[in-house]
Amino acid sequence: MHAAFASTMRLATATALLSAALVGAQNQMVQVQVGAETSTPGGIFQFMPNNLTASNGSVITFTFSGIPGNHSVTQSTFAAPCTPFKGGFDSGWVEILANTSTLPTWQLTITSDQIPIWFYCKQKIPAPHCNAGMVGGINIKPGPNSLAAFVAAAQKAPLDMHEGGLVGLGASASALPAIDGGATLFMTDSATAGPQTAAGGSAAGAGTGAAPSGSGAPPPSSAGRLGFDPALLLTVVVGAMAGAAMVL
Predict the structure, then answer these.
(1) Where do the segments described as Disordered lie (predicted)?
(2) Which of 18, 63, 117, 191 is the most buried (most CB within 10 A)?
(3) Taking a C-beta distance cutoff of 8 angstroms, is the pair 136, 110 a contact?
(4) Can you list the positions of beta strands (E) in the chain?
(5) β-strands 171-172, 183-188: how paired?
């Protein structure tokens, strides 16, 4: 009887270890460079890598690494590569200054790995980054809607910079990008907007797809760097590095 009990316990332990290993393999931590290279001034207009595979529960960490630089991670569709997907996720513009010591990061959690997820950078200065090929895809399916076809379509697509939210189709975030005092986060709103602090990287509208809003007017110099209407600008400056939480 003792031998049978010991055998049962060994089997249970092995099953538990196998289950834990499978969960660990499924819930990946995927790293993506936004702006790609810290060694190239201003970075390059690419996501590296830009073709990702991630299962449900996996966390994709986007690191804004082009110094100085200004980029976004914005959900779009295969049919309109450079237009924000209505109800999609959007990091906002993350401006990285030359004196940035800690690179900003933003995390997405995969909520549906059965659908392809497309994204792009909506910055248009000095030229539209999306048209230059700064696009990517997650869980792309075999067939004509390939990454190469998406890149080719993006090169000719019109650029749209409307804001999105934190929750998108197939993936979501629980917080704005985590940045230090050497970087600035810019969002847009449908009303006149101004400076607003998001302590700890939290955001109004988290889990609703809504973008934060405020009141007042932004400095003209900030709007000039980004190339969009000052009346539609919301500036969020985060003074300390904060970790983005996972959405499960």
Answers:
(1) 197-222
(2) 117
(3) no
(4) 29-34, 47-48, 51-52, 59-64, 69-71, 74-76, 93-96, 105-110, 117-120, 135-138, 171-172, 183-188, 233-236
(5) unpaired
The Cα-based distances of 89 to 2, 71, 120 in angstroms read: 56, 14, 11
Nearest to 232 by CA among 186, 198, 184: 186
**Maximal C-alpha separation, the chain:** 81
Q: Tens digits of per-residue pLDDT, 101-141?
A: 888 999 999 999 999 999 999 998 888 999 999 999 999 99
Strands across the sheet containing 47-48: 47-48, 29-34, 59-64, 105-110, 171-172
CA distance 199 to 104: 14
- Which has more pLDDT, 211 or 160? 160
Contact call for residues 138 and 60 (beta carbons, < 8 A): yes
Torsion, Cα 81 236 54 245, to 10 degrees, reads -160
The pLDDT value recorded for residue 108 is 93
Please give the pLDDT value at position 26: 57
The predicted-structure confidence for 166-188, as pLDDT tens digits, reads as follows 777 777 777 767 655 454 566 55
pLDDT (mean) for 143-154: 98
Q: Which residues pair with 32 in a beta bridge?
A: 62
The one-letter amino acid code at 190 reads S
